[in-house]
Amino acid sequence: MSNTNIYIHSPSFNSSILVHIPSIYFLLKGDYMCNGKQSLRWLKPMYTEHSPLDTIKYLERQLKGEDLHYFVMSVYIWNENHMIDVSEMINMRWPSCKIIAGGYQVTKEWVEKYDYIDNVIIGDPEDIFYKIIDNEIDDSIVYNYLSGFFYSPIVDLQEELIEMSIEAKEKYPEKNICYVWETNRGCPYSCSFCAWGLASRKKIRRKSLDMIKDELDVFKYMKLDVFRVADANFGIFKEDVEIMKMILSAVGDNVSYFDLSFAKNHKERVYEIAKMVDDYNLMPFVKVGIQDTDKEVGEAIQRAEKIPY
Questions:
Q1: What is the pLDDT of residues 25-61, one digit of tens each?
Q2: Coil vs helix vs strand at 181
Q3: What is the pLDDT of residues 151-191, one digit of tens each?
Q4: Alpha helices, H only, the chain
Q5: Disulfide check for 187: which of 41, 111, 138, 196 has CB 3.0–4.6 Å away?
Q6: What is the Cα–Cα distance from 116 to 84, expressed in whole angstroms?
Q7: Which letter does DSSP use for residue 199 in this model?
C-alpha cells in the first residue's frame, strides 16, 4: 500500500551564506499532527534552493516511484519565480497532486493566474491548513488569521528539529545555519513599505512566557550559527526585556550572530535590549526603520511622524 506523500517547499537561496532550517515545515506539520485525520508521509524538505529540474529529481529520489499527493509552497518576493517554475513542473510530473500556495507574495488572483494551483491561503496557515488537506474546505481561496498560539510545533517536533539542524551543519559546514523564530505575530503600524502593516494583521498575538521558555529549551540543543527573531517590533512590550534575557541565556553562548527588528517606539527599552545583545558580541550593527519624514507623504499614508518639520 502506497503512502500519502506531502512535501513542504521553502528552501534557502543556494548562493547565500545562510541556510535556514525551514520553520514553515515544522509549523504546518505540527498543525496537521495536532488536528489532521490522515496518516501522511512528510518528505524531508530541501535546505537550499536548486533548479526546478533538480528539485523534481530530489523528490523522485525520495518518492521511489510513488506519487506526490500534496505540494505546499511558501512564496515570498525573493523566491516567487522559483516557486512558480517548480509548481508548474510538479503539475506536469504528478498531475493529480494537490498544490497549495501561501506566503506574503500570494494573492487571491493566483488561483486564476495559475490554474493548476488548487488552494491559496491568504494570511496565517495555522488551524486552517489541516482542513484543506483533509478536504473539509472546498474554497480555493482561504482567508485565515491567527487567533493565538495554542500549541508549539517546536516542542512537539523537537527531536526532528534538532536532528535537522545537526544534519544541515554537517552538510553545509561552510555556511551559517539559521532558525527564524517568533515570540508574537502582527504589527499595529501601517508602514507603506511593509507587509506586516496590513490591516488584517493589526492585532498582535503573543506566545505565553511558558511556551517561549519551552521553545528556547529546544534551541539549546540545536546546531545554530544565526538566531533570528521574526517579531515585527521586538521591544514593544515591557516583557520583551525579560524575554531577551531568556533568549541570551539559551543561545547567546552558542550562536555567532543575532538578528531582530526593533520596536519603532519605546526607544529606551530598545536601547536596553540592544545593549544586552551587544554584551554578548552578537550584534555588529543595529537596524533602524525610518518612515518617510516628508510631511505630505506622512499625511498621505496617515502616519505622519511626531517630529518638527
A1: 999 999 999 999 999 999 999 999 999 999 999 999 9
A2: strand
A3: 999 999 999 999 999 999 999 999 999 999 999 998 887 77
A4: 23-35, 52-63, 80-93, 110-113, 129-133, 153-156, 158-171, 209-219, 239-251, 267-279, 295-300
A5: 196
A6: 10
A7: G
